Amino acid sequence: MAARAIYAPLVCTAALLLAFVVSPSAGLSLDTVREFLTREEDTIVFSLIERARYPLNRPAYDPIHLGDGAGPGRRLNASFAELFIRESEAVQSKAGRYQSLQEIPFFAYRVPFTLAPPYNFTRELYPAAAFVNVNDAIWSMYFNELLPLLAKNGDDGNYAVTVDSDLACLQVLSRRINYGRYVAEVKFRGDQQTYTSLIQAKDRDSLMKLLTSEAQEDVVKRRIEKKATVFGQSITSDGPIKTGVNNSSGTNFKVDPSVVYKLYDQWVIPLTKQVEVEYLLHRLD
Amino acid sequence: MAARAIYAPLVCTAALLLAFVVSPSAGLSLDTVREFLTREEDTIVFSLIERARYPLNRPAYDPIHLGDGAGPGRRLNASFAELFIRESEAVQSKAGRYQSLQEIPFFAYRVPFTLAPPYNFTRELYPAAAFVNVNDAIWSMYFNELLPLLAKNGDDGNYAVTVDSDLACLQVLSRRINYGRYVAEVKFRGDQQTYTSLIQAKDRDSLMKLLTSEAQEDVVKRRIEKKATVFGQSITSDGPIKTGVNNSSGTNFKVDPSVVYKLYDQWVIPLTKQVEVEYLLHRLD
After folding, report:
1. Measured between CB atoms, does A231 come within 8 Å of chain B?
2. Which end of chain B is less crowded, N or C, counting CB atoms within 10 A of the terminal residue's CB?
3. Which residues form the signal peptide (chains A, B) (predicted)?
């Protein structure tokens, strides 16, 4: 895949800073942050189940297989998936999706105007740190690690629908993981003195330790695994709901619950904490 | 909303007819059709739950509120939602989504080429009847009837994400309802003599009667309602799964199960049968 620049809306920084100073804490608390993250889990499980409907559809991911060659694909050495996501994100950018700092595109855009009705978003992040994101790591993790665990081998030709469902997975994973910025902002506000000294000392390890709660992480991992068993089961109109708790192989579920556990254990939680640390290191800029 | 033309790929009819004659029944049976429709229910419930995350966001649906006026919106007298869906469908069309007859766009497109890797789709529908769809009725039902039941009043400014979730709902409802073409094809093949005489007599009422099984429809409606209770519940990591069966108000669920029941009872099932009848009336063309 081609290298992608980090999204850095530098031109907006002055305006954001002003908005931030005016209302730095509107609505943001440990409770609202936790509620948001918990609700995102459902969206993540739904999107993984939807992607798992389709086979791997490998031609969509290899530049060699790109269409009739009339388009820009061969010149860019890009896959169908990458071109589709670029074009879809461009439409969404024009539609104002990235006016909300909760949303970060995988490809950077400069659009001269947005079609969307105007809206005055609350700016809850510290402007100089708001750009922090790990979309490159998410992109690579999704296509190289997660997708082969999600999708069965096969090719049914439904490349657009398949890659559209990849985009849905990528978008919610990006929003969930990069929400670490909001988590860090809330934690910083809750103990400014401790965080300030660690940030000034650039003490990455102590920051990571302070942000880590293994007990809480364990609750989250068990909960997402349970969501995968409940949302991925087969439901009949009359029979008992099959919770699938006795099934350890995962074969009766639309997406293997152990894969969802692994997603959180190995990637979502560590990457979120990486975002938190990076955000904090820019929190006093 | 502006009127939209029915998608009629007339130029392709000859090629489709040839492909149909070569393999008229590959893989299509009452079992595969039922399996497809049952699986679509999960996708429908997921997409409704996702739309219900966002408030109504009324400015997205009213041409008066359209952006900065620099775009084509005011000239077309279209809403932000309509423009967003048009542009998204154009990208998906270029990406080959509508090469599969299972997918029908809400707006007609003529794209000179597709970016997608080539794939030789099986043509299971009778070409002269394959164009049948009720997308106009689905569009109107979704925005005028269903959406006000799904989304709470409010405006959080996330118009692009909201309308993107509308598009996901519209796409799966369109695919599910217009799959009536496949249902009708299977039923026609199962009893060609009876159907042929009714089709030749243009006996719409008897066709509708022959296609109706109230017992089967009742199973489907109860099953989709149950899926809404299971997929829309709140899951904790340890506590028992709250199935919500004792809750009749629907307030504890992410989308009210009775709304999902009503969706199937009043719109999905009747519109599907309308598609079946229209398809059959063109089955001997």
Report:
1. yes
2. C
3. 1-27
Sign of CA dihedral B55, B61, B63, B68: positive
Q: Is the pLDDT of residue A17 over 60?
A: no
User: Could you give the domains of chain B?
Assistant: 30-233+252-282 (1.10.590.10)
Contacts of A113 in chain B (CB under 8 A): 67-68, 70-71
Q: Name the most confidently modeled range: A64-73, B31-40, B103-112.
A: B31-40
Half-sphere exposure of residue B183: CA atoms within 13 angstroms, side-chain side: 25
Tokens 């509708």 sit on residue: B208
Q: How far apart are alpha carbons A285 and A269 in whole angstroms?
A: 26
Instruction: Give residues with Cβ within 8 angstroms of A230, minimum separation 6.
Output: A243, B230, B231, B233, B235, B241
Chain B: residue whose CA lies nearest to A57: B117
| CA closest to A47 among chain B residues | B46
Q: How many CB atoms lie within 10 A of CB B136?
A: 14
Confidence of residue B115 (pLDDT cuts 50, 70, 90): confident
* Chosen from A101, A109, A230, A235 to mutate, greatest number of chain B CBs within 10 A: A235
Q: Which is nearest to A163 in space by CA: A263, A75, A50, A262?
A: A50
* Backbone CA torsion sign across A212, A214, A215, A217: positive
Q: Which residues of B touch A158 (CB under 8 A)?
A: 100
Contact B220/A at CB under 8 A: yes
Interface predicted TM-score (ipTM): 0.88
Backbone angles phi, psi at B271, to 5 degrees: -70, -35
For residue A229, give the amino acid letter: T
Phi, psi of B100 (to 5 degrees): -85, 130
Tell me, yes or no, if B227 comes closer than 8 A to chain A by beta carbon. Answer: yes
Q: What confidence category does residue A118 fall into, taking pLDDT thresholds of 50, 70 and 90?
A: confident
φ, ψ at A170 (rounded to 5°) = -60, -40
Q: Are the beta carbons of A50 and B66 separated by less than 8 Å?
A: no
Please give the average per-residue pLDDT across B4-11, as a whole number: 37
| Residue A110: per-residue pLDDT | 76
Asked if A82 and A105 touch (Cβ cutoff 8 Å), the reply is: no
Q: Residue B118 and residue A231: Cβ atoms within 8 Å?
A: no
Among candidate residues A141, A92, A102, the one with its CA nearest the CA of residue A262: A141
